[in-house]
């Protein structure tokens, strides 16, 4: 399997593109599903307690190649504008409430 990405850095309003290519000629099993996703992995460890969770923000998937299929390729597209966060308008800094700048709001949204 080989995956090619259009680029490595995307802005929130763009569409992420990736092409997956699979050569399944040597395999005797079907590849049932191939996916492309934007995920956030969160993990915390406090003393002996551990918490982890995967937040899937956007996903695209397709049925994969059959057993013995030589060439299979698919272009995956993810609309990154569908991922939204509510940006905080204010923050506390040194005990005072300050307004978050428009640039920081854009980055956080």
Label this structure with key terms:
mainly beta; 1 helix; two-stranded antiparallel ribbon; 109 residues; elongated; 3-stranded antiparallel sheet; single chain
Account of the 3D structure:
This protein is mainly beta. It has one domain. It is built from 1 helix and 7 strands. The protein has one helix spanning about 100-109; strands spanning about 1-5, 15-20, 35-45, 50-60, 70-80, 90-95, 95-100. The radius of gyration is 20 Å and the shape is elongated. It starts with a strand and ends with a helix.
Compact description:
With 109 residues, the protein is mainly beta. Helices cover 6% and strands 50% of the residues.
Please state the overall shape, judged from the principal axes of the Cα atoms.
elongated
Helical stretch count?
Answer: 1
* Strand order in the sheet with the most strands: 1-2-5
Helix/strand structural class: mainly beta
- Rounded average pLDDT: 89
- Report low-confidence residues grouped into runs of 5 or more: none
Beginning-to-end CA distance, first to last residue: 34 Å
What is the number of E strands?
7
N-to-C SSE string, H for helix and E for strand: EEEEEEEH
Helix share of residues?
under 10%
* Whole-number tally of structural domains: 1
Strand content: over 45%
The quaternary structure here is single chain
Main β-sheet description = 3 strands, antiparallel
Overall radius of gyration: 20 Å
